[in-house]
Structure formats: structure tokens, C-alpha cells
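Hi Y.,

Following your request, here is the sequence exactly as I used it, all 257 residues.
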Amino acid sequence: METDSDRKVIHEARSPFGTVFVVDVGDRRTLRFDSPHGTVQSAILKSEPLAVPTSYVRVATAGLAFTRGRSRALVVGLGGGAFPMLLHRLLPRLVVDVVELNPVVVEVATRFFGVREDSRLRIMVEDGGRFMARQNPRYDLIFLDAFSNSGTPDHLKEALFIEDVRRRLEPGGVAVINIALEESRNVASRVDTFARAFEGCAQLRGASDTNNLILVGTLEPPPSEPQFWHQLWRLGRELGFPGLAQSVVSFQRAVRV
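Below is the corresponding structure, written out as C-alpha cells. Let me know if you'd prefer a different format.
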């Protein structure tokens, strides 16, 4: 448990959507919104920038076990850029598009978290809902990770938005969503809204003291649990990410209410 004396605010920037803080806690650099005491939105290790210290980012990567597509990915919500930079590093032929509403978050991620655009990583400052409602392009993987300090914006929880996500998937593609900062009584509704848009839906959790729930929506029935663990093991080998299989501690098919 971190204390006030552990935290060192190294950057504070006002934005149209609240104040953005970069806070160091020992070797861990974190991104937070509204308060230096707020929920950690993203983290890196200063001594090992290529490490992936945030559990839910590793679990979200397991979504690739549900699809063979490796051409194009979309991330809605940049944060500190841990997930898009991980995909960029692990899959050298993958093109990653990122949609981030807050231009200050893009500036901070670039300055303090090592995010770099190039021919395979493009960041667009835009509302995720508006972007998703357009027609093209389509993606093999879409990761929904847009948050304020109070949780997911309401319009990115609606069934219409999730239907737009489904429509933007390539055949065989998968949608992955990070559910966090949600009151427990609302989680079942979030799961049901997401699951209803897809032929199959699985719930994944990691070994962490946070309560992030990762949902994976598929355009075909999801694998059985034994198939999933085998596919995840193979994915870890393919990506050169040997700890990937150990990052996920539970797999469960989501049942529509």
C-alpha cells in the first residue's frame, strides 16, 4: 500500500477533461486523473520500460488467443500507452490505431511513458464513439480501455456502441473490453450488454489486487476452457511472451442474462 510519502508528482497538466498527473512511486511511473491519489490508469517501470507491470494489460493480450488475425488492431483509450506499445513490440507486422479523446493524455504518454508514433502506430485525437460509428477500416482486435477517474464514459457502455464495435471487426475478429471502476451492482449489466452483441463471450481475470474484468467477444463460439489454455500457451510461444499463460488465472464463458 503506497503512502503520501511514497508518491512524487513529476508532472501535472490541466486538460479539457480534468487534470492529468504523472506520479512516481519508487521505480513505478503511473498515470492518474484528477488527483495524484487517484486510481492508477497506466504504469511502467522506469528501470525496465519494456516490462508490463499492470496485470490487466497482460490479460487483455490473451484476447489474441481467440483470433488468428494479426493485421490490424484498434485501441480506444490511450492512457500511458502500455497496451498499444506492447502489441507494437510483440507483433512487428501489426498496424495499431489508437483513439484518445484527451490531447493532454497523448502529450503525457509521449513525454513520460515512451509512446512513439510511426508507420505502424497511429494516434488519433477523437471521441471513440464517433470513430466507431464510421464505416472503415475493420480490425482483427479491438480493445476498449477508455476511462476517466470515475469509470467508463456512459456513451461507451451503450448497446449501440458495442454493436458498432462488432461491425468494425474483421471475420474471425475479437473485441476485448476492460471493465473496472464499476460499482459491483452494475457489472452484470455491463457483461450482458457486451455479450449480447457477439456469438460468444468469455470472462478473463488476472492475478492482481485490482478487480479488473476482461471480456472477450467473438464472432463465432468461443473455445472450451481446455482449448483456451492450449491456445494461450501457443500464443505465448508465438509472441515470445513466456509469462502470458500465467497472467490469466481464470476463464469463464459469459452467459447472457
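Residues 225-239 form the longest helix (15 residues).

Thanks again,
Q.
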